[in-house]
Amino acid sequence: MNRFRARAGWGIAGGVLFLAALLAVLLFAMGLWRWFVRATAPALVDLPGGGWTAGAVLGLLSVAGWVGGAWFSSPDRNRDRDRKPDRNPHQNPDRNRGRVGPARVGLAIGGAVCWTVAFGALMYVLGALPGRNCRSGATMCAYIPGTGSAFLAYAATAALLGWLWYRRRGTVTAARRAEERARMRRLRKKGKGRSRAARSS
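RESULT FIELD:
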């Protein structure tokens, strides 16, 4: 009983230490990122076009990363990856399910890079703004001229491009579903739709 309590105590202590170390690493990374943003933002907003151009470029990067992440993470693209063809697929429908291979690893890496770009651009814009609950005279809290317009340009660009891409994706998906329904309707008229559906199930 005492041995069990000792193990439980050591386990709890180890868990607390692990969480404390993880929190320390997270805070250090956030502080490092904040320093990097505050150090590079003045040069970025001094480019031709000022903060408006910088915000528009960051918004474009964020939307591009979002589109790329959705493309890499699509269920249709991750389905049946790295599976060897089976001579009898109906006898072994679950063969190689969940297998991780080079193609699936490549999709995961590509998706991670795209989502990092998407959220990194957003965090960069937010990090350039003055922080809340911060002393006005501190270097990390001073307002950087041009970051306000950069935030507005980022929000407008990301919202507009994101809405356009969402509408286009909805239109393409609706057209694809209509084409599939028309194909199945033609197959049913020929008497092949029921047998093909039974084979797929």
